[in-house]
Amino acid sequence: MKPVFSKPKALNDAVMHYCPGCGHGVVHRLVGEALDHFDILDRTVGVAPVGCAVLMYDYFNCDIIEAPHGRPPAVATGMKRSRPDLIIFAYQGDGDLASIGLAEIVHAANRGENVTVIFVNNTVYGMTGGQMAPTTLLGQQTTTSPYGRNLNTDGYPIRMAEMLATLEGTSYVARHAIDTPANILRARKSIFRAFEMQVKDMGFSFVELLTTCPTNWGMSSRESIRRIKEELIPYFPLGVFKEKEVADYI
Amino acid sequence: MSSGKRILVKGNDAIGMGAIKAGCRFYFGYPITPQNEIPEFMSRELPKIGGEFVQAESELASINMVLGASALGVRSMTSSSSPGISLMQEGLSYMAGQELPAVVINVVRCGPGLGGIAASQGDYFQAVKGGGHGDYHLIVLAPASVQEMYDHTILAFDLADRYRNPAMVLADAILGQMQEPIVEREEEVQEPRKPWALTGAKGRPARHIKSLLLKEGELESHNRLLQEKYREVQKHEIRYNELEVEDAELVVAAFGTSARIARTAVSKARSEGLKVGLFRPVTLFPFPGERLRVLSARVKNFLVVEMNTGQMVEDVRLNVSGDASVFFYGRPGGAIPTPMEVYERIVKHYKEQ
Fold first, then answer.
1. ipTM (interface predicted TM)
2. B76 assigned to some structural domain
3. Could you tell me the residue ranges of all domains in chain A?
């Protein structure tokens, strides 16, 4: 019998700690498929964030380091500069990347570091228990915006993909959602493209994924999936915002 | 150590020369006075020898770039001055927890806050007591000459690798900015193998470097192991210099620039017949407290001189015997004690015996 579907070699058999309906499992799988596809698992080092995905070293079969909160792009920079033969990816959540680590992501992108950043945007701080994130939507209730995010006091949710696409240093910038099989396939294609950019020394690649957090959204898994389409995508449009054809920094 | 010729070098440049001699090829830093010659030197020299220089967006980024490079097993370094070193405390705590070696240079300026750019020893506590969160220590070296700026940088790389721990060279603005002749080391520096490094999981299981230890008891055990390591460092790596302590009735204790100033004062006192010696800790962590304890069995008067309001003096008091008197003279905020001021303190306390 020919297997038609199997777990990527890049992922191990550990039972994930993520909540039911959480998007991290899907994104882990897509990253794992990319590592398998390019046959780079044994020369890849991942950089884990602070947040729910800090435990990603329990699930990936590649070397992984844990970075201080928000600093994965700086850690990835130090790694890629000292061992350019290795494939370096950072995996970050919205609090990690768009709040405390904003300087690190913007400057790593602007320097055109030849690394791949996977940005999981679920509009909320997960591990700390559902506080307001820089990507929390206006009106969205969280434990620190109990009356809903208010633009007068909390400002607007940040669109990271668009911001990074304006920087000359970025080579590939995309945003996708994981709410439907079709969108997951698009996300998969972009994640593959992002790693391909790095393998080909094309420079900084960034893929933002709109994902679910049923626990901190106070929703069922099904309602969470629906929220991506009804609330997230209208504010965070999907697509490839930038794709360089040739590297311009080598 | 070497029969090489003497060359005139600025303290900050000597740091860069020492780092390159030690095999450091990766430097990450952010400008701040009075240490700018170090990133300038590294940005000029590293590309010539296949190294990488990155001007980071902040000291937060610098130390985390060092963290990343170090995790892959290469020798890397950053340098800064006091306010910038404050920003690095997060990364230093992580690296201590993750047992990653690195060298951090602090060309200390005066504080608190933005303070000023003149020399100070006000970062002693921050350097030797941890500085960041959690129970940990850096290995801290205190150079007192441009030659030692060079030598200690090499030594810091060796100690950092040997103990898998960040090491700091605690200099100051005077040492960074002054020129003195130095002799470069001729023999090659040996780098140890690093079987713990992240190199890609080729032909071996995946490897993880982390400091988040959530299993019951796991973090306590890890802390116990770290403390065990610090005890090893204390056992094997204490370094200090002494001048005329054998028959001394008063010993001046000072590190770095203060020790140089104190040396002039001690010589003057000796020339006038006062039995005064000088004790200079070279390692601030591990602190040569045991030697002070032994000295204090005979010497009953200590004068600690610092360019701050009294920091190392606490460690001296902790270590000398209970019947010894410990006096203090210090000037904070970028003021430099003069040899005459120190001499006057020596005479005053010598007579009080």
1. 0.97
2. yes
3. 24-243
